[in-house]
Structures are given as structure tokens and as C-alpha cells.
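Notes to self after the call with IL:
- keep both proteins in one doc
- input above output, always
- annotate only the second one for now

Protein 1:
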Amino acid sequence: MTDTIYAVALISRKMSGLLPDELNKAGCEIVSTQVGDILIRRIGPETVALLKAAHNAAGLRAVTDWILFHERVNVIASNHGSVYPFSFATLFSSDEVLRQAVIENSEALQIYFSHVKEADEWAIKICAPKTQDFRIDDAQNANSGLDYLQRRRARNAGDRVATMASRAEALVSPLKSFARDWKTLRTGLAPQTDLDVVGTFAALVGRNQADEFTSQLRIQAETVSGGLQVSCTGPWLPFSFRPSFRAEVMSGTNKTSPVECEASKNC
């Protein structure tokens, strides 16, 4: 049976057919295209089934080694040029199908490589302490006015979402002048154990402006009020700024962006 192609990273330039020892040991190979070199790994049907099953917490735990492999290969690749990091467990049926997909997306990929050259992604998350959105003052009222209370709770929750989202946007606004590109990934409440995420953002920052960006971030974090908390992780590969990769790929998982991964954690 023919092995499936696990596409890990597309590098903006040729690697001259030479792989670092660490990638050789990890079983990586190069598939060359006119756009750049693609780092792949050939996998069998059992691994394909394992990766396709990684759509929940238990499934992801089962592929921890593959997640670490994916991340490490992309980091090493970034030492050799700008990188298009494929989504985790992006699978193709053959080398030729993979090459054709890259050719069909070549224009968007070239624009992307120019845009992200010498730049990294920084993930910003704004959290707020949990609050009680409504209070039942009288048990009798709760029993006799359930519909009213439900409407009141929905209204209060909606007001809080809008207020917090607006405050989160205002808080990060001064950072945009230090970024080459900016994306609001999510606003609104995302309940967690002891905090609510009210906004997640991605900034594409040139490496020559990273110090200014992080300095401004510290200033914003120190001046924040109302219980909001700011956290930032990076630098990452520019996952959030990739163009859509139009291809007929075999489904893997969609756990792709470090920003999304970070957004699932507590501040």
C-alpha cells in the first residue's frame, strides 16, 4: 500500500537537497516545487487513522509526539527561509497531488512569503474575572418570573460581552502601529475555570520592531484597569496570516494555530 504524505512545512527557498541531521532522524524528506521545498514525512495507514481520530482532548493526547514533531520541524525549517507551516496533520495521497496543490496556490504563497519575511506572529489574549451576570433576590420571583429572569440574564450577558469586547479592542489598539499586520481572532466571552477570555488577537511583527512592540505591550498591560488581564506569547511562525490553501487534501485535524491553542488555556 502506498504511503500517505504528511506535509509539514513549505520553505520559500531550496534546501539544496540537504536536510539537517535532526530532520533526517525524524524521517523527513524533501519534495521540491517551483515555489520552494516542502518537508514531508511518509506515514502508513495506522498513523493516518490515529491522526484523523485526533479531534478531541483524548485524541490529541494520543498524538502528542506528532504535535511536537510538527512544531519542531517547522521551527527548524524557519532557520532556512520564510515558512508556510501546514496545518497539523495535513495529508496528501501522493507527491504529485501535493506538488499540484502548491502550484495551484503559487501566487498566494509568493505574496505570503513576501509579507511575512523577517517577521513573526505574536499572540495576545485579554481575560477578565468572572462576574455574576444576574442575581435572584427572591425565590418566589424566580419561580413566578422564570421567563423574565432568563431574558434578564441573556441581556446582561450580552451587555457584558459587548462592553468587554470594546475594552479589549481599545486596550490593544496602540499596539497596531508596531505591527506589519493585525488580526482580531475572537471577541466575546469564552468561559474558563476562573477567568473569561474576552479577546484574542494576532500581530505580525517585523523582527526589527519586536522590542518596540513588546515594550508597548508592557505599557498597556501596566495601565489596564477593571480587572482585565493581558498575556502575550511569541514569537511564533505566522500561522494566522497564511492564505487559504486550496487543495484536495485528506482530512487530518484542524488544531493549527498557536493562538488558538493559547486561547484554550487560562491566562
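Protein 2 (the one to annotate):
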Amino acid sequence: MNATPSPHRSGMSAPAGVGALPSSLRFRGLTMTGQFLHDPENKRDIFFQGEGDVPRSFTVLIALGYKTDNLDLGRNGIAIIDNDNWRIVADACHAQASGLKGASAEQRRALEEICAFGWEEFASFCRTRETYRAGSGDIDIPGSKPAAGNAERQVKLGLRIHQEPDIRSDFIRGIHETGDYNLPRTTRRGMINDILMHPSQESRNGRTLAWDTRMNFSWDRSGRVEGGEEVCRSMDARWMAAVKEDDDLLRKACDEAFSPYLAEGFAALGLEEATCEIVAGGPEGEHLLLKSFRGTDLEFRDHRDLRQKIEALSEEDISNLWVTVRVLDKDLSRASRANEVQIHLNSLRAEKEQEWLVEADEEIAFVV
């Protein structure tokens, strides 16, 4: 639990709304919270961590008076307001005859003591006041911790900045923390916008999210890979000539590199909740197209159509679709494509060299 002096916030009216004040109160810079007149310095917003990510919030203040039709200075003392349920829990605690002379020393001490309470002590204090109003469930029924706070209402009261919840799973957060993939905290809206901004290609029934798998850039075609199969340097020239003359070598390496993505039931990071259908398509079939995700057709007419399809998904599915897109972005980047194709090209070169060695042995045997 913590307590902070509260600034003016929406829902507070100027003290002019109470009509003419007695001269002893007129120049004190008083303000209103709800129907309570008070000195801004004698007000605290306190928070208790309970269930969920949003803490419970209450406002505790020393009221000098209470306004209905007229200002009642006899109704003064400690007031406790439930910010999450927008209701008064108790008021007129430690009241004095009149709030005309300002907060008493007793009321000031009580304010600090209440703000230092733990949850159970705070809830017990509220329940035992003569002016206690039942209706806040976690106070009405004794418990070791409060319910979750109401983020939307706290935002409206200026108690917190609006922040949509992080809907990533613990597993995805862990993956991000390893640095293997960039899966940062974002909102549901942010995930949807990320997906909508991804490149797409024409498909049979419109368009779909797509990844380029072309190898039309500079990369190492030598067939040598650190930690891979050993190949003979004396055959470097012959291998490079074979790669240049035989398109099937590169095509086979690419097919082997990208075939896992085309397998039935493919799921990024092996997530059972992220199975999808990816097909080859686009110009000359050199793109991977995300045709469906967990049975939901992702081919779309335009971005409005795609947005509607994504927004219809559950939060878990939106999160996992976003993860899928970002994982594929890295795994199918130029650097990753080159690395993966090089590995398969290394295996093909090792096989090719064995064929060449057999051919050489047969020629020698024939000559002998």
C-alpha cells in the first residue's frame, strides 16, 4: 500500500460551487472532491495490491464540510471514498463540532495513521465506523487482500495513465527476454496494427500476408559451413561451376530449407496454440503465404477486411498470430534464409563430392 497527496482531477469542482464561504475559510485555497470541501493538502490517494495487476484505490481526506443544497460544516472529519466503485465508504470520522477553523490536530493524525494501514487494518477500520456504508465487497467481507482495482475508473480520476494490458503469455515474455526474438510488450491494438502493416501478396482469393523467399541477393554459395560437413578445397572450382550450371542444386537447397514451413500443422516456436497453414505463392511461387491461422481464413480483400478478421479472434489468438508473424519475419529474413540454405547446400555439396569421387574411381578402374 502507498499513499500520495492527490492533485486536482476530473470530477472536482471549484469551491465557488459551495456558495459564499465564511471569512475564516475564504482564502485558504480550498477545493471540492465530490461533495466534500477540503484543503488539497489534507487528501491522499492510497493503493492496496490485491488480485490482478491493478491495485485497489481509495481516497482519504479531511472534510471541512459537506455540500448538499447548502454547505454543512458540522459534517466534517475523515472521509473515505472507494475510487474503483465510485462510492463513499465512510465519512465524518473523528468529526469535530465544526470545520470552520480547519482540520484539527486529531484529524491530521488520523489521516496519516489510516494511510499507513495494511489492507486488513484499513478494511476493519472502515467496517467499524458508525457511518460505514456497505457495498464494497472486499471490505464488507473480511479477507487478507482486496479485489482487483478498476483501471478504467482510475484513469478517469487521473490516478493512472491508461495502459492496455500486456496479453503476451509468460512463455512469450521469456522468449523475448532471451533475445532470440523481438517480442516486446505491446497492446492488443499494437499487435493488430503490426500485423496489418506486414507485406502481402496476391493469393487465389484476394491477398494474404507473405514472406519473400527469393535468394536474389549476394550470399555465400560455396557450400562451406562452419561446423558442417567437411568438403574438399580442391573441388571448390568444380563446385562453383556446378552451382552456376545446375539450377536444380540451388532449387533443391531452397526447397529443403523452406519445406518445414509448408508442413501440415506448422506452428511458430512449436506453439500448439499457433498452428497455421502456409503455402507457396506469389510471383513465380517464391513467397510463403499465410493462408490460415488456427482454422481462420486469413485471405482478405483489403486491410479493412483483414482487420475485421483479426479483431474477431480471441486475445490469445491475436497474441499468437502476432508472435507467428514476428518469428517468421526473423526466420525468413535475408540473413536467416542465407544461413539456412547454406546449411542444405553444404549437405548437397558433400553428396556431390562423393559422386565425383566415385566417378573418378570408376574412370581409374576403367583405364587400368
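Annotation: The longest helix spans residues 334-367. The two ends are 93 Å apart (CA to CA).
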